[in-house]
């Protein structure tokens, strides 16, 4: 009985901050999302973040919005281009990523490796939300 209560407690466990959400699945794998604000061109906007390591087959989603027209973002797994460098939507309001309209990558199935988010152009500020969920089926 206590084993089941512990399992339920682990599923319900979550750490929530404005920039990072993490929870554990019943198998103990981490589900993660990371929101970042980028103000300069970079080859890898998540270089120092744990979310970049994909340890098993996972589903990846990416949303992005910018302040100024023409800002560009890309997503790679190792050297494989998941989303080519392209324009992102302009924010509907200050500091808002609208998950209904700003999604760029829809349930991309990826294997193990390292993710990289490149920002090829940014004039003022670009925000993105990256979600990595291990495939459990």
Keywords:
mainly beta; globular; single chain; 4-stranded antiparallel sheet; 137 residues; disordered N terminus; 7-stranded mixed sheet; 11 strands; Jelly Rolls; 1 helix
Give a summary of the structure in a few sentences.
With 137 residues, the protein is mainly β. The protein has one helix and eleven strands.
Question: How would you describe this structure to a colleague?
Answer:
- This protein has about 140 residues and is mainly beta.
- It has one domain: Jelly Rolls.
- It contains 1 helix and 11 strands, in the order αβββββββββββ.
- Strands 1, 2, 3, 5, 8, 9 and 11 form a 7-stranded mixed β-sheet that branches. It has a 4-stranded antiparallel β-sheet with strand order 4-10-6-7, with no helix packed on it.
- β2 and β3 form a beta hairpin.
- The radius of gyration is 16 Å and the shape is globular.
- About 20% of the residues are buried.
- The N terminus is likely disordered.
